[in-house]
């Protein structure tokens, strides 16, 4: 607590004093551009990893970046989503999972949580579609590789849950909303974004239109002399995705996942 109180003093005397005009503007209202849904994990800071400014992100955080389907609960997630889209007119949503997710580790052994952490058990039931999909389709994987898969699949599952909200469904139908699936790698600081055309998670820079790419995006992250560390599963997906031509059309909003996408999200093609 002493450290936090010291931080409060430093914030007021340093950051706040240097940005008083910004805080004055923010005191009259907010206009965030992105709804960022991610895990409560203390190792993730949405503003830090995106370098977004104060007031630019509207954030929902909970264990496992879970979005209960519409009508399943009266919790804060649904109300926050509705407010973000309807009241704040946010037109971009990011659902961001992360490596080494404790909630997804719990999902892999859900029954063991029933007695020790019953509230966690009940919460993770909103990711039951993820657990069942992985159980039925990835039984030949185990350990860390299986965890990577369940983390990635869960992001897509939660986007499907997100699409059950009337306000989301309506905005998607009107073409007024884009939804992005991200995974943050704690150990490398990299973000991987799901590409529904390539059925794989790729670097988000690869999803930009040629007109949107500038020097800040290709140097240094995309130069050949920079080494990016991926796990074995991610390396296969990334390498496969690089073999496919990059189209110039808009990648998102996501459509309903095809059986092929459900079958193997890390594969760079639809073949098995």
TrEMBL record:
Biological role stated in the UniProt entry: Reversible hydration of carbon dioxide.
InterPro entries: Beta_CA_cladeB, Carbonic_anhydrase, Carbonic_anhydrase_CS, Carbonic_anhydrase_sf
Regions that span the bilayer: none
UniProt keyword annotations, A-Z: Lyase, Metal-binding, Zinc
Keyword ATP-binding belongs to the record: no
Keyword Zinc part of the UniProt annotation: yes
Gene3D superfamilies: Carbonic anhydrase (3.40.1050.10)
Pfam families registered for this protein in UniProt: Pro_CA (PF00484)
Superkingdom in the source lineage: Bacteria
E.C. designation(s): 4.2.1.1
Family statement: Belongs to the beta-class carbonic anhydrase family.
First-level EC class: lyase
PANTHER family: CARBONIC ANHYDRASE
Cofactor: Zn(2+)
Catalytic activity, as annotated: hydrogencarbonate + H(+) = CO2 + H2O
Protein name per its UniProtKB record: Carbonic anhydrase
């Amino acid at each position: 607590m002493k450290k936090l109180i010291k931080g409060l003093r430093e914030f007021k005397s340093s950051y706040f004093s240097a940005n008083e005009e910004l805080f004055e503007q923010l005191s009259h209202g907010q206009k965030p551009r992105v709804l960022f849904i991610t895990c409560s994990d203390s190792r993730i800071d949405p503003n830090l990893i995106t370098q977004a400014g104060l007031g630019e992100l509207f954030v929902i955080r909970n264990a496992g970046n879970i979005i209960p389907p519409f009508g399943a609960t009266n919790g804060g997630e649904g109300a926050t989503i509705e407010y973000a889209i309807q009241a704040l007119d946010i037109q971009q949503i990011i659902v961001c999972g992360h490596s080494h997710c404790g909630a997804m580790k719990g999902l892999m052994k859900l029954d063991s949580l029933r007695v020790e952490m019953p509230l966690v058990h009940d919460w993770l039931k909103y990711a039951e579609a993820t657990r069942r999909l992985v159980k039925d389709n990835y039984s030949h994987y185990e350990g860390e590789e299986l965890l990577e898969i369940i983390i990635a699949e869960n992001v897509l599952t939660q986007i499907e849950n997100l699409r059950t909200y009337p306000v989301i469904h309506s905005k998607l139908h009107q073409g007024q909303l884009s939804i992005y699936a991200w995974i943050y790698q704690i150990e490398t600081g990299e973000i991987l974004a799901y590409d529904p055309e390539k059925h794989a998670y790729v670097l988000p820079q690869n999803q930009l239109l040629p007109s949107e790419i500038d020097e800040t995006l290709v140097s240094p992250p995309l130069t050949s002399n920079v080494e990016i560390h991926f796990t074995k599963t991610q390396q296969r997906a990334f390498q496969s995705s690089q073999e496919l031509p990059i189209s110039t059309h808009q990648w998102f909003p996501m459509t309903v996942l095809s059986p092929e996408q459900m079958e193997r999200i890390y594969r760079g093609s639809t073949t098995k």
